[in-house]
Amino acid sequence: MTRTFKIFRSCVGAAALAALSVPAFLPASTALAASPAEQEQLDQAVAALRAITTVKADFVQTDRNGQSVRGQLTLKRPGRIRFQYEKSARLLIVGDGKALTMVDYAVNQVQRWPIGNSPLGALLDPNRDVAKFGTVRPTGNPNVISVEVRDRGHPEYGIITLIFTRNSAAPGGLELSYWVALDSQNQRTTIALSNHRYGVPVTDNDFRWTDPRPASRR
Predict the structure, then answer these.
(1) Which of 110, 114, 118, 138 has the smallest C-beta neighbourhood within 10 Å, fewest atoms?
(2) Is the pLDDT of residue 88 over 80?
(3) What CATH number is attached to the domain comprising 135?
(4) 77: DSSP letter
(5) Which pLDDT band, with edges at 50, 70 and 90, does 126 fall under?
(6) Which sign does the torsion angle of CA 61, 92, 15, 132 carry?
(7) In this structure, are residues 152 and 26 in contact, taking their beta carbons and an 8 Å threshold?
């Protein structure tokens, strides 16, 4: 493995963890009060997320240095998600509703963390009320809604911001266009979505993965 490729893989893995593992929900005691207009926008964003049954979309993940990697996102309610990175990355992230698993086929490693400690909980669990824990941020564009989520009691967890664009063809009339994660070291990671396909056939087999580790290490 070349030094350049090692650096690339390190950036991909770090960016994936930053983008996916920042806790998404504030404790109720630290949630900020929203104005009626902000509450309406939050409700719209929540309704749009909950209206999704299945979706496939292309994504581009970009780290703070501008390095990007592409892939395909597959989501199925309840609780399943898959980030299939381009072949050169040799990386896969799968959520089964309880945990997120990052599979690194280049070094035969597997990492898991609770999905409840991830911003993806907002996408995967329609029963979670994101409206209680997010804060609407002004965008200057009536067709764009920005929802920032952070745990003010734990600044080390960082910040996640979900950006929605009005689209009458999307469930609930809003489409999740991208999200931005900022960790405690101000490392910024963006995952931008495009070519959304809603209601497409998705089976449980789409969320299976091959364990690259020797049997003795599993």
Answers:
(1) 138
(2) yes
(3) 2.50.20.10
(4) T
(5) very low
(6) positive
(7) yes
Supply the range of the domain harboring residue 64. Answer: 3-208
Please check whether residue 214 lies inside any domain of the structure: no
Structure token digits, residue 94: 């799968």
User: What contacts 19, CB < 8 A, 6 or more positions away?
Assistant: 61, 179, 181, 189, 190, 191
The pLDDT > 70 percentage for the chain reads: 70
What values do phi and psi take at 184, rounded to 5?
-70, -15
Interval 46-58 mean pLDDT: 90
User: What type of residue is 88?
Assistant: S
Using CA atoms, how far apart are residues 111 and 199, in angstroms rounded to an integer? 30
Domain total of the chain: 1
Residue 215 resides in a domain? no
Of the pLDDT bands very low, low, confident and very high (cuts 50, 70, 90), residue 96 is confident
CA-angle at 17, arms to 161 and 45, nearest 5°? 25
Q: Who contacts 144 (Cβ-Cβ below 8 Å, separation ≥6)?
A: 163, 164, 165, 166, 177
In this prediction, residue 2 carries a pLDDT of 44
Closest to 102 (Cα-Cα) out of 21, 31, 33: 21
Q: What per-residue confidence (pLDDT) applies to 16?
A: 58
Cis amide prior to 119 (ω within 30 degrees): no
